Amino acid sequence: xxxxxxxxxxxxxxxxxxxxxxxxxxxxxxxxxxxxxxxxxxxxxxxxxxxxxxxxxxxxxxxxxxxxxxxxxxxxxxxxxxxxxxxxxxxxxxxxxxxxxxxxxxxxxxxxxxxxxxxxxxxxxxxxxxxxxxxxxxxxxxxxxxxxxxxxxxxxxxxxxxxxxxxxxxxxxxxxxxxxxxxxxxxxxxxxxxxxxxxxxxxxxxxxxxxxxxxxxxxxxxxxxxxxxxxxxxxxxxxxxx
Length: 242
Hints:
Blueprint: E1 19-22, E2 26-30, E3 37-48, E4 51-61, E5 66-70, E6 72-73, E7 79-80, E8 84-87, E9 90-93, E10 96-100, E11 106-115, E12 118-129, E13 132-141, E14 150-160, E15 164-167, E16 170-174, E17 177-184, E18 187-190, E19 199-201, E20 204-208, E21 212-222, E22 230-237
């Protein structure tokens, strides 16, 4: 007689590493109607391999290997406990996050991440990998305020973590007032100061009594070779001088 093979295969491993999770308020687990969902409320934390996520609400779908995180309103209606995502050297805050453990891809809203020399704000962003974001309605600024007083507005762009910000059509905004001229049809902003590369120089912002508000020392740096480079900068003032 022919040998019969075992019809029961080995169970597939759903996750490569164990998922550790905790919450200060409550944990709700749902396995009804084919669902495999764990919901965490208030001070929720998830650790998976090198990934660490905190938020006031986190939902883990074990079937689709996805997580969703957002903040929750407090007693005054203010949204608190916004998601904070960390994976190795990548770290950012956002208003909501959807992430897939298997593909390492996700969608983020209102992301804020620090790069050397400034902060990058993205209205909506797609995580292509843990180090690359494609974003729309972005901002780059050296201002530390949650809503920066001045920034480079980027219609569409790509951020490569700890390396560079590649921008499409961009223009300067000062105190929410857009300066459409001069605009940049394309820009490369190096965010790693140890890298010798060409790029846009973001101006500083301030005010003088006799000249008004100003953008100072903005321009472009061209790293032509290891022995030759050029930096072109300029100043512009709201009362007319430049």
